[in-house]
Amino acid sequence: MAHRNVDLAAVIAETGWSQTALAAAMVRVATETGAEEAFTVTRSHIAMWVAGTRPRSQAAVILRETLSRRLGRLVTLAEIGLAGKSTETGTGADWDTDTLAALVDLGRDNMDRERRRLLAGAAYSVGGLALPGDSWWDNAPQRARTRSTSATHAVGESEVRAVRDMTDFFARRDQRHGGVDGRTALCQYIVDDVARYVGGSFRSERTRQALYSAAAEAVYVAGWMSFDASQHELARRYFSLSLTLAAEADDAALAGHVLRAMAHQAIDLGHARVALNLANASVERGRYTGAASRERALIGVVRARALAVNGQRREAIIAIGRAEKDLQQAAPGDDEPQRVWFFQEASLAHETARTLWALGDLDGALRHFRDSVRYRKADSFSRTHAVTLGYMGAVQAGQGSLEAACQTWSLALDAMKGVQSGRTRDAALTMRAVLSPFRARGIPSVAEVDARARHVLQRVT
Q: What is the pTM of this model?
């Protein structure tokens, strides 16, 4: 006979939701992640689970994530009385986990076909975005310094350069070809080489910090490629691990860079409140003030967008102005990290346009999207160029300029050739959704763009 799950009942009570409301929220999360087991959850299912019936594994994971989002903290399966009954590949961010083990495990998860399939369907863990307290950040470098190692090979500047060179290669490849293709090769490099270096011995504390920073950037790029491939929970885990390595390197500016990426992802997925928390964290503890001008501009403009999606119009406009000034102060020859090579006038215009779009200023958004397209070197930034044109067409369609939107989207589809990206796929989906009401009207430009977008969706994985 099943026993009442008092732990689950208590957490549901904490949310203030009825069982009907919880079921509806679960369906929304399941739809977001493609978790078919939970598409048809109703109040009756919730009642049965509270009564002691165990949900199927995928439904349990969706239930945990739904409760986490409501409460704004990580809810574990153990907390709701369902520990040990799930094929879940990990829950949330464990900030006290062993960094080296996490580095190897996460890389192998991404290379193993079955584990990758499970991660692909895992819900993006908003609860896992809760950041550790000040003492964790303060103690992170010492934890890394005192980590035991049996390695006999001393890691030096040549290993640091090797990691940075490989990371730069994949970062540039991602900008041109998208994050779908090549990601597994980077993950293999992280497991085979980066993890070995992190677990090595170091000739000096300075070298250790430099290697940890380089490792953090490699893991960050793997996260960004996963984000671009629409593998959102996998991306979040890579970002969290990158943030841990940056903290252990005592590299505040790099931590701000990663937090900015986490905020960017949360905004795109519609989690405005947690995105602002992450964006605010990206400018704290010297992460903004200690960064180079170009990186300050990048951190600042993403924070502007986080402010915008939270309805803080005045603060968002101020943040845009500050980001513009920061980028103006960046100059060739500045001592700035290689990771910000891509952030130039075109990038700032793109993010500014998205911020103004979130504020409802379509004219301003369109003007800045046009600037972004004009400034960008399309051959080197094919993926971003296609995404920008996709957004620009959506704004034009929102203004009622259907013919102009089709012209812009035609250019976007041209730019997608040779690109494998979840974000370009999303742009093609948007085109088809917006054009759907016009398909039967015999408009040549609509028919052409719709057919081409359909073809893109057929070939992009």
A: 0.84
Residue 15 has pLDDT above 70, yes or no: yes
Rounded distance, CA 168 to CA 383, Å?
16
- Work out the percent of the chain whose per-residue pLDDT is above 90: 69
pLDDT at residue number 88: 47
Domain CATH code at residue 257: 1.25.40.10
Residue 89 resides in a domain? no
Determine phi and psi for 202, rounding to 5 degrees. Answer: -125, 145
62 and 195 inside one domain: no
CA dihedral 154, 159, 163, 168 (to 10 degrees): 160
Structure tokens at 84: 């040990």
| 197 & 225 share domain | yes
What's the token pair of residue 16?
């203030």
User: Residue 426: pLDDT band by 50, 70, 90 thresholds?
Assistant: very high
pLDDT of residue 96: 73
Question: In terms of C-beta distances under 8 Å and separation of at least 24 residues, what long-range contacts does 319-322 make, across chains too?
Answer: 320/352, 320/355
Name the DSSP class of 75: P
Residues in CB range of 453: below 8 A, 6 or more apart = 409, 413, 428, 429, 431, 432, 435
Q: 421: closest CA among 207, 225, 185?
A: 225
pLDDT given for residue 181 in this prediction:
82
- Please tell me the distance from the alpha carbon of residue 128 to that of residue 89, in angstroms, as a whole number: 13
**Domain range for 32:** 6-71
